């Protein structure tokens, strides 16, 4: 089976980012491969048999290299880093999906996997649509017979997947074995292919810290019979109620 895994960082440490006034800063030294991506790689290595597992990432700078080398140490066969698109920019989701679709159209992958995140379902669904692949979200179980379980907000969904398919993977799908020292050493020496992407002219998002100080309002039902109406009106003004 030929499998692609799209990997990304995860904010495992509270020190991974800091805020100062209206600026959010990420600290590269505290950004590592996400747990759900580790599970996706472990699943892919189990399923590949005589096939291959190829890793792809859009992470910037040293973080991109770090997550790919981590992924290689878990048993993947190759790694490719796309440069030129900011994966943290929500406006770039469609562009990332298009870049991946152009790359994957030449490869004939049976499965395309990525770990879960608020962004991954967005671009993964777009990618599946662009490739005309089936899409399965929040997969917590998948086996060689293509039987799957998908975790929903209430309960779960089970069935048999139709390939080719794009899957978003939860950390529960597979418990990866820690790589050996030899695996980690080989991953550090492995070649990582770079692909430069020409940046689009699309407007970039800005990530800023919310510095607003909210008013504290207290109403006493004994003194103000219309306290409930006042609360509802305040919640409407804040956009919490419509």
Task: Write structural notes for this entry.
There is one protein chain. This protein is α/β, with parallel strands linked by helices. It is built from six helices and 13 strands. It has helices spanning 35-47, 61-73, 93-104, 120-131, 181-189, 227-237; strands spanning 2-6, 9-10, 17-20, 23-26, 32-33, 52-57, 78-83, 111-115, 134-142, 147-151, 156-160, 165-169, 193-196. It has a nine-stranded mixed β-sheet with strand order 11-10-9-12-8-1-6-7-13, sandwiched between helices. Strand 10 and strand 11 (156-160) form a beta hairpin. The model has no long low-confidence stretch (mean pLDDT 86).
**Order of helical and strand elements:** EEEEEHEHEHEHEEEEHEH
Radius of gyration: 22 Å
Low-confidence stretches: none
Distance linking N and C termini: 50 Å
Structural class by sheet pairing and helices: alpha/beta
Brief digest:
This protein has 242 residues and is of the alpha/beta class.
Write the layout of secondary structure elements.
Blueprint: E1 2-6, E2 9-10, E3 17-20, E4 23-26, E5 32-33, H1 35-47, E6 52-57, H2 61-73, E7 78-83, H3 93-104, E8 111-115, H4 120-131, E9 134-142, E10 147-151, E11 156-160, E12 165-169, H5 181-189, E13 193-196, H6 227-237
Helix pairs in contact: 2-5, 3-4
List keywords for this structure.
242 residues, alpha/beta, nine-stranded mixed beta sheet, two-stranded antiparallel sheet, 29% helix
């Amino acid at each position: 089976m030929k499998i692609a895994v799209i990997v990304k960082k995860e904010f495992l440490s509270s020190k991974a980012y800091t805020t100062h006034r209206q600026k959010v800063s990420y600290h590269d030294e505290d950004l590592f491969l996400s747990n759900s991506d580790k599970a996706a790689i472990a699943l892919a290595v189990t399923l590949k048999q005589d096939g291959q597992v190829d890793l792809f990432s859009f992470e910037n700078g040293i973080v991109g290299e770090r997550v790919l080398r981590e992924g290689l140490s878990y048993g993947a066969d190759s790694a490719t880093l796309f440069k030129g698109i900011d994966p943290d920019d929500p406006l770039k989701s469609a562009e990332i999906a298009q870049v991946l679709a152009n790359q994957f159209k030449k490869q004939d992958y049976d499965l395309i996997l990525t770990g879960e995140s608020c962004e991954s379902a967005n671009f993964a669904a777009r990618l599946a649509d662009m490739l005309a692949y089936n899409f399965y979200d929040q997969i917590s179980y998948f086996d060689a017979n293509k039987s799957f379980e998908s975790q929903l907000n209430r309960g779960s969904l089970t069935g048999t997947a139709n390939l080719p398919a794009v899957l978003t993977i939860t950390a529960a799908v597979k418990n990866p074995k820690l790589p050996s020292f030899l695996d980690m050493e080989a991953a550090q020496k492995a070649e990582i292919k770079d692909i430069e992407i020409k940046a689009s002219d699309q407007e970039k998002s800005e990530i800023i810290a919310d510095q607003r100080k909210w008013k504290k309002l207290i109403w006493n039902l004994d003194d103000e019979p219309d306290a409930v109406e006042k609360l509802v009106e305040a919640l409407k003004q804040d956009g919490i109620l419509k």
